[in-house]
Amino acid sequence: MTAAPDQRPFAAGSEVAGQVAGEDLRVLFGQSIAVFASLTGPEHVVETANPAFFATIGEHRARTGVPLVDLMPELAGQGFTALLDEVYRTGEPCTGRDVRVVLGTGPHAREAFFDFTYEPRRDGGDEVVGVRVIGVETTQVKHAQHLMAEHRALLEQIARQAPLTEVLDGMARCIEDLAPQEVLVSVLLADPDGLHLRHGAAPSLPDFYNEAIDGIATGEGVGSCGTAAHRRESVVVTDIATDPFWDDFRDLADRAGLAACWSTPILARDGSLLGTFAMYHRAPRAPQDSDLALARVFAGTAALAIERHHTEQARRDAETRAEAAHAELTKAMRAEQELRAEAEQRAEAAAELADRMHAAEAAQAAVPHPRQCALGGADGCAAPAELKVADAWGDAAWGCHAHAEEALLNVRSAFIANEELGGLAAYLNRRPVRARHAGGPRTG
Length: 444
Hints:
Blueprint: H1 3-30, E1 35-40, E2 45-49, H2 51-57, H3 68-71, H4 80-90, E3 94-103, E4 110-122, E5 128-137, H5 139-159, H6 164-178, E6 184-190, E7 196-201, H7 207-213, E8 216-217, H8 223-231, E9 235-237, H9 250-256, E10 260-267, E11 273-281, H10 289-365, E12 387-390, E13 396-399, H11 401-415, H12 423-428
């Protein structure tokens, strides 16, 4: 009987020690970024929690004295309540790494990741009276890992020279998946003169919107993208409905359900304009530092992809021009060879003709000079033979001035152009015709 009084002070002392330890934990975790909550009883009533816990679940739910499942009903179907029940029942702690949890419901729900520990709380008699929840949110680390993996995949696409449209489309979808809030990404490509922007990628924007802004000018006040391209600096429009930059596009944006647009210029290493990278939102919104950092990272990636594309396009164009020039050179060389062969054939024919003319000349030199014209045909001509007429085939005849002139006209125009017609021989053997003039030389 005397033992009981001794146990009561011990139990009381243990309870006080437990309370002190709890206070220490609250002090330790009070200003920490780690999430801390102390739950009591089988219903896991929130006895106390640090500011980080309430900031995580939402300040509008910052209260104690209520079961955790009432404070955060979304946990019921995610297995966390069952784990709390097991720790409370067995007294064994439970830990988890990068555990996914959906916080909130409806349009305000967000995905988060935590490293956590559930530790049993005991009274002086070693009986479990509650559970301590200690967690560190790893959502940003998880997103950063996802971001780096996606970024690495994009760089690999660029390295293997994937089509630019494929790279830009994949980049846009990646950002839309990574962003904690809904965002619609657009990439516009600058014309070579830098005066207009063309559609590059915008997988989530409606087609009518993409078609309407395809080819917009770069200039001050031309929406977010046209202005960013003109200024060569980021342009943030938090409310399209009231911003003067969007006066000419406000109705179009309203039809597409767009309320905010942040645009970042995509610049080459030499500072020239490559395009713009835009992030659209369904509601008016100002960017956070993380949003701007994300835009800068992917604007740089887009610049790398576009410059690589331009380099490859220039190389392909150069190869095409070189192939065309080579084809033209080959064609010219072939034509030159054909002309040379033709010239050689003509030279051979000319040499053969010259040989024949020399032979005819030698043969005719031995023929005596007739006294009368031999060009009068069957009717003959008594005029003296004063001129010798010859053709390229070795035929020759003497005649008077009138008949020689007539022979030259007829042989040149009718016979000498075609060897098959017989040349001068055919003229000499022509059918009888009445001599145009059988007298002396024709004058006038």
